[in-house]
Amino acid sequence: MNLDTADKSGAGSKYAWRELDRIEPLKRPVAERLSDYNEVCRPYDEPTARQQASRCVQCPKPNCEAACPLDIPIAELLALTAEGQFQEAAELLFSTQSLPEFFAHVCVEKRTCEAACVLSKPSHPIPIGAISRFLLDYGWKHGVKEPPPAPDTGQRVAVIGSGLCGLVSADALSRLGYAVTILDSARVPGGRLVNGLAGFKVNRVVIERRVQSLKERGVQFRMGVLCGRDVTLRELRLNHDAVLVALGRTEAVPLDIPGANLRGVCQAYPFILQYTSDAPLQATPVNVQGRRVVVLGGGDTAMDALRIALRAGAGDALCVYRRDMENMPADPKEMENAMEEGARFLFKSQPVVLVGNADGEVTGVGCARTQLGALDYSARNVAQPLPGTEFEIPADVVLVAYGFAPPRLPDCKELAALARDEHGCLVVDAAQMTNLPGVFAAGSIARWPVSMIEVMQDARQAASGMDRYLAALRANRC
């Protein structure tokens, strides 16, 4: 049921979960969505947010909170919203979360809190994600302030990387009273949030607003600075009480099948950058106007590539994925949006060869059907190609979205002292400290592969570990 047809009676009833339907946020018409890069859904109004929150049965031990990777006090937020105490709910949200505007946009709630809701089977889960977005917008519009930072500890922290992980950890550490400096080789802070994340996911204004808020709190940004070239780790350790390495994913996983070097075969991420970044392009622009686009992969990058290709005038946009829909790693709501906008999906099919013409241009994708086998390290079924099931899909452009390799540290002797695992990720202990005392690591550089919401979780945990370490230093100085 959508907002236009909702019956808003029954709010506040003991049996609201049974008497009231779940209401999905109203989406903009597809034709309108395809003409821009703005957000898809319109926010709840106050009566709808209150009504939907009233469906919560207030479990004594909420499954939704247990499933939440960010420890959000969901039940209390819903109770306040159901009572119309929007100001108090927004204040609670802002006081318990680092960068709440980011989790509200990137969280995969249909696989976490909403999937764990006790109403999932007898009825429909509470729309926790949509209510969180309402509270976020309400807080910003009504001037809800985040709690003031703790008193200055007199200690300094350096954060290497200004992407999601760096911003979340810097936010948490600055709230705790530490003087934080963020260093990044890029010219503009934000990492993939400003270079690669489409506006229909997170509006860049939201990111710029958060960066400005951090600056006003005292966080320093040193942009265009490459660790290992412009500043050494030794210098950072001498001038700071702790250092956090929060570098994100950079290099895309290459396509390793015959024909991968044909013209028209490109990585999806540089294609996405054509439409999401103001930075100079490092790759030749890809024209998809009126062309048949095939996207290989099943993650969020693949969904972005499909949806951007359609906005850029592609004649067809087809996603080829080796597993089934249930095993697809992409956010379910992003896949749903892509389907609504005209993207097609071919499941349980694996590319085995790319076909080209005499001019070296790609003309098709040779695939084989797959069957699902045992679970792999990610708890998903391994896809195995079936002999004798080969077929070909016509294609003018092939966009490869097979994810990202672990981030690489700048090549210098000093950084080589940091211990790494078989994937090249930095080895950390339970507090997320590396083998060098006072040097911590979080996000993709320490845990690969990792989703955006897990990056936020990791950043918060690293900030907590650094806080304990720094508190112990203070205690020893007394």
Task: Give an overview in words.
By secondary structure, the protein is an alpha/beta fold. It folds into three domains: 16-141, Alpha-helical ferredoxin (Fumarate Reductase Iron-sulfur Protein, Chain B, domain 2); 156-250 and 406-477, FAD/NAD(P)-binding domain; 265-400, FAD/NAD(P)-binding domain, CATH 3.50.50.60. 32% of the residues lie in helices and 15% in strands. A five-stranded parallel beta sheet has the order 3-2-1-4-14, sandwiched between helices. The protein has a five-stranded parallel beta sheet with strand order 5-13-6-7-8. Strands 9, 10, 11 and 12 form a four-stranded antiparallel beta sheet that branches. The longest helix has 26 residues, at 452-477. 43% of the residues are buried.
Summarize the structure.
This protein has 478 residues and is an alpha/beta fold. It is built from 16 helices and 14 strands.
Largest beta-sheet characterization: 5 strands, parallel
- Low confidence ranges: 1-10
User: How far is it from the N-terminal to the C-terminal residue, by CA?
Assistant: 62 Å
For the largest beta sheet, what order do the strands appear in spatially?
A: 3-2-1-4-14
The count of helical stretches stands at 16
Structural class per helix/strand content? Answer: alpha/beta
Here the CATH topology of the largest domain equals FAD/NAD(P)-binding domain
Beta strand count:
14
CATH superfamily of the largest domain: FAD/NAD(P)-binding domain
Residue fraction in strands:
15-25%
Q: Tell me, what is the CATH class of the largest domain?
A: Alpha Beta
Backbone CA Rg = 24 Å
What is the chains' assembly state? Answer: single chain
